[in-house]
Amino acid sequence: MLNIGNFKINLVNDLIGVKRDPSVVYPNVEASDWNTYKSFAQNSDGTIQSTWRGYLLQTDNKNILIDTGMGPGPYDHVDFSGQYLNNLGKLGVSVEDIDIVFISHTHGDHIGWNITWKDNVPELTFPNAKYLVSKFDFDYYSENLNDDFEKQIIPLDELGALQLIEGRKEIATNVFSLPTNGHTPGHQCLYLETNTTEKIILTGDLFHNEAQINEQYWCPIFDWNTVMSTISRVGLLNSAYKNEWIICTGHLSDDKAIGRIKSNENGFYWDPI
Hints:
- The protein is built from seven helices and 16 strands.
- The protein has 273 residues and is α+β, with helices and mostly antiparallel strands.
């Protein structure tokens, strides 16, 4: 848990994702370019892997979820369902306790528990929450539908829980959305101004792998617009470095999920806290 000022932040893990070939995820990166990062950014078999998770932010008597994981499944690579709700419960928080669900972007591994389907009828998994979604993502994917969006975003509007946001918006006291377009048309981070000198940023999918801390121009195949995602990534990660912000990452392993960017003679590196 991260406990700074008036903010408490906990990981809410769902599952460990599938193992992937880095040459498939980062097709424009030469295999030899990974050599520097193999010992800490790849598995021992040379694959890369992400954790599917969200975060629970508690502040001013509000419970805010940042992203809702991949969802219950089923999955091909494991024989059990997503653990998001179980792990939320272990923190002493029920689905009814959630006030706000902030969606960094509308890819399937970040919206999977938004809606619970019962007998082909959608219900809000978090019945008392407002779901905050980027207007740019909503508009784009409403015209370019996929199954995840249809099942986990569209019903939010029909059930009266959807709130579209754009730009920098204060969603709770000293909690701000921060546009970082590129990974999707409306990708957004969450920026926290604590009542101490610390600043915290929850980065969603601004980057996926620890190697991107230094190789900020590497873009995965998941990026909607690589020019925009690179501009967002370089701009925000350099600001985080210069200002010593604490970063809560979207996909790094639990032991590395939260940290800061530091530098040495070889460039930038990740320093977990």
